[in-house]
Amino acid sequence: MELIFQNVWLVPFFPFLASILLGLGLFFFPRSIKKFRRICSFLSITFLSIGMLLSFYFFWQQITGSPIHRYLWSWIVYKNIILEIGYLLDPLTSIMLVLVTTVAVMVMIYSDNYMFYDEGYIKFFCYLSLFTASMLGLILSPNLLQVYVFWELVGMCSYLLIGFWFTRPSAANACQKAFVTNRIGDFGLLLGILGFYWITGSFDFQQLSKRFFELLNSNQINLIFSTCCALFLFLGPVAKSAQFPLHIWLPDAMEGPTPISALIHAATMVAAGIFLVARMFPLFQMLPFVMIIISWIGAITALLGATIALAQKDLKKGLAYSTMSQLGYMMLALGIGSYKAGLFHLITHAYSKALLFLGSGSVIHSMEPIVGYHPNKSQNMIFMGGLRQYMPITAISFLFGTLSLCGIPPFACFWSKDEILVNSWLYLPVLGSIAFFTASLTAFYMFRIYFLTFEGDFRGHFYNDSKKLSSISIWGNLTFDEEQYKLEKKPFLYPKEASNIMLFPLIILTIPTLFIGFLGIVFQENKMNFDFLSYCLTLSLNSFNYINSENFLEFLLNSLPSIIIAFFGILIVFYLYGPTNNLYLKKNNQKIVKNRSNIDVIFFNFFSFIYNWSYYRGYIDGFYDFVFVKSLRFLVRIISFMDRWIIDGIINGIGIFSFFGGETLKYLEGGRISYYLFFLVFCMFLFFLYSYII
Question: Which residues form the NADH:quinone oxidoreductase/Mrp antiporter transmembrane domain (predicted)?
Fold first, then answer.
């Protein structure tokens, strides 16, 4: 038994080994290895599946009472400085291992068919395995130094995968944007790590929190300096988990292949920031000001992401802003001290969002042969609609993910999100109000995405005809002679359901989307309220005093406001985008135009503002572009002008004057007596002429 726990490092090692083997094969046999594409994907999936099985085993051992396992080796020893590497296995680690490996295996199986005809198929699986191994290594890290190493590996892999189709300019710009934005956060993280090492003399999670607590109790710490170090440390998760104001890279990251979007948004890159805040939770709890900052950053991010998602046309970018909003919920929960609720929502959201992204990938995959392969067409919901009748399994699975994210019982996210809503309201009503309002917006934009994509009539046939497209409502109600239009055009193509290989992960992910939320349900045992997830997390390294006074019935009663708010958002989106309303507008179009009231004008202006806010991403990208890009370029031009025409101008002027002066004297100092006599006579003539004039 002990031997198995000593080899926990095998969990990240297997996908890392798969990445190395594929990379070596591509390097030494670039042509012949392409004949064995299926074998390469099978190798990656098999190795990661072994890691997944090991993760389940370690998880089972942890929840059945196995102690925390911690193994360290000396890496650098110099005088009194000892830097160690190793791994840490506690319930939090085991839960995250299961989460990452299960989602990653589903993504790999899905990618086998999704990326099969791509020229970079093998390279994709090489990057994917390395990405997963880096995240698993980060989860197992026992100290901040090792976390930082894997943190950078995760960032490097995201750069490679976001820019996988780098020949597309938008993809190249997106990966650079993600890389630069995360470098800002990583620099802050490095400063925070070094600051806490200077304070406590340790990188180890347990020792760091323990020493900091002792120094704080004995008043041997500068509280302002410690708070600054904590905020610098928090800057890393802000960038990695796409929190305001470093969230701008996340929607552009949709330029990568859809399976990567699923992995980034569900279980790897954005989850890394939440995991680090959870791991450092005991330390952050000792600094109340930092906890306030974390909670408000989370609340602002949740609200901002939800408002920008309201009118997105791009399917994947709508889901990306949804991820940003849900990550804000997780950060809000951690900031108010609701440790269990934040991690619970991380788990439930991961499976729901993986399901949604893989479902969107199936939709895009079926739309590409009809409208083209450019994201502006294949991901544009304006060209979709009515896909439920062509892709029923994808539609049902996507609906399950939508219901979960909206917080509708009994789906997974209901249990975690409602706990965050209740706890945030009890902590501070202002934060609770923001959280509840964001919940209604979530229901609105998620069902808007579902209605535009899967309901109504198919609109993909009119992607090349802007005049015809402008006369079609989002529900496909045609206001022209459709039969005549069909006669003028080529035979129509219609979307098709994805292959069985792509449908398999969708069906499997619906299971945790439905049932994993029950891990956090409160049951009564021996007159004590008990839930499984709290029990697991209490056993972890970051043990916390969690007292849940609610029983199951009280929880359901307290959840009624959030359910009502979610249904209210769904009713609004159904009223605005539903078929009944559109049919009514179609029949009474002339009456509405003639009798347009002031209320209609107000609503029109309001919706125009919402659309512009969403289209221009809250004007934040434009603000950053003006302040950091255009202003910097303008300053560089001024400095370049000064350097070229003033500083260099003076130096060059002296040089030119010396050059022409030397050229002139060259002819006067030729060594010939006749020139000297001529110059002497000429000067005497000028002298006498001047004297005569005076």
Answer: 141-441
